[in-house]
Design brief:
heterodimer, A: 130 residues, alpha/beta, B: 539 residues, alpha+beta, Beta-Lactamase, Heat Shock Protein 90, 5-stranded mixed β-sheet, 12 helices, rod-shaped
Amino acid sequence: MYQPAKILAIDDEEIVRESWRRVLVSDGHTVSVACTADEAMRMLAGEHFDVVLLDLKLPGFGGMHLLRAIRRLAPKTEIVVITGFPSLENAKESIRLGAFDYVTKPLVPRALSNVVSQVLTCKPWKVQER
Amino acid sequence: MPAIGLRLRLVIPLACVLIAYGGLYTYLAVRAQRTEILNEATQSTLRLAKTARRTTRHAMLRSRREDVHEMIKEIGAQKGIEHVRIFNKEGMIMYSADRREIHRVVDRKAEACFQCHEAAKPLTKLTTSKRARVFDSEDGHRTLAAIDVIYNEPSCSNASCHVHPPEQKLLGVLDIGVSLEDADQRIAKSAQRAVLFGGLSTFVICCLAAFLIHRLVNRPVGQILDCTRKVAQGDLSCTLDTGRDDEIGVLARSFCNMTADLRKARIEQSNWSQKLAAEVEHKTRDLKLAQAQVMRSDKLSSVGLLAAGVAHELNSPLTGILTYAHLVAQKLPDESAEKKDMHVIVTQAERCATIIRQLLDFSREHSPEKKHQDLHTVLEQAIALVEHQARFHNTKIERDFAPNLPPVLMDIGQMQQVVLNLLVNASEAMPEGGVLTVATRWLTQPGGDADSIQMTFRDTGIGIPAENISRVFDPFFTSKDVGKGTGLGLAVSYGIIERHGGTIVADSTLGEGSVFTITLPLNGQVDRPKSSEVPTREE
């Protein structure tokens, strides 16, 4: 099993952010939300998050750039890419840049819980490897 | 007026010429014979006259008048002798076979005297031709008469009787008449024979000419004419064999050769027409198929764009609905009616999420990652995935794979998706079970650049109604019950095959089954096998 984690949900749509937050909070996690890339970077610079849920399509800043920036800024944070425009190229690029998983919208609550659960289950093993 | 035939055209002038020639020849022959007979009679009569004169000469020199009379009588008694007379210079008949004529004086204009006494001064000498004459006798037949002049020879003037003075040149004329009745009968018979022979000859020659013309000209020309009529009516099967080497034989052979060439040309033309019609039909079908594909492609493209936009826009609100319904449901007591209702909301929203995911799959047009793959491996893997599923329990899957199939450039994941889709569709078309035949073929074209691989999925299911067959690849078209299919499977498959440069077509007979045929181009990337196992597209 895993410990409750600190999670940052990044999406430009409030209903999506709030939905994720509510599901993950109900699972016992601590959830913060950000609606832009700048806000997310500020929050990541200020505190540590165990998991980042990242929408690839954010206004003003490409999701891939943000993924790269998060990877540099917080190497210990696991990133799950969630997108409404899935493609094989994006998925491969995301995994290559260090994303833990690549899932597509719409994400049903059970699927969201499962993916976060997988991240947190695997994370101790990955830390040991590092 | 009926046309005059070739035979008549040849026979009539030939007969005319033959008749004219025969007539002329017969006439000339009869005339010559007549002249000859007459000449013969004339010579004979002249000789007879001369003989009579010489016979009586001695008796005259002796003045034995009775002897002369007897001689004349004897001569006149011979058959055919009509008269024998001796005139003196004054025209008195001195001796005659007919004693009643003796001492009768004849006129100088009489036919016996006329030849000499025609001129003012009587002739003393006559040519042979003038000494003979022909005239009609009182009996109705012709008579040839000849005279022989009795000159006052020295033996006459010196005779003891001195009846004739020496200055007298002529003593008289012996006139002898011979009947020409026999000669005329001979001439008539001869003429009759000549005319008969000439006529018969002309008739025989005309008949022979007609027969030869019929045999040598008319009959072969008639055969050629019959053949030309048949050819004109379109029957090119007639043949001619005159068995001759002459001009008509050459003509017949030339005509036969021409007919054979014509027949060959007609067959070739017919074959070409059929080929052309088939080619036109084939090309028209290809064109229609290409047009339909372009239209479908455009439709898919625009529907794909729309679907992507709609799906993305629905994503966020659906996330909210799903999440909040889920959260509310968690708070409701189990077995409560509200929780059940909330569960319906969650289930239906999840269904919406699935549709949106499929829409996004459909609208995604990322290029396939193509590698050379063994198509049979892809097919076997897909079949292995489904054949143990409950829905395939009554379905018999038969394989009819072509040997030596070359590797095909394809995205193995996408191709598997297409194959799975068609396998599942086929099983759903056979709810009572049936046979699904999966076949592959290598289609070759001259040159090898247009070679392709064909995959067919033939089921024995319920079939697709004719009015739906053109819509099966349309997005959202489905014959399944509501909630059991989105109608995107075949549209997605179509898009995938199209991105591989291939085609997918459906054919179906209601109640008998459907066939989905996928053709993937090889683009000349493989070496053909040397064996002749590979069928051609025409097969």
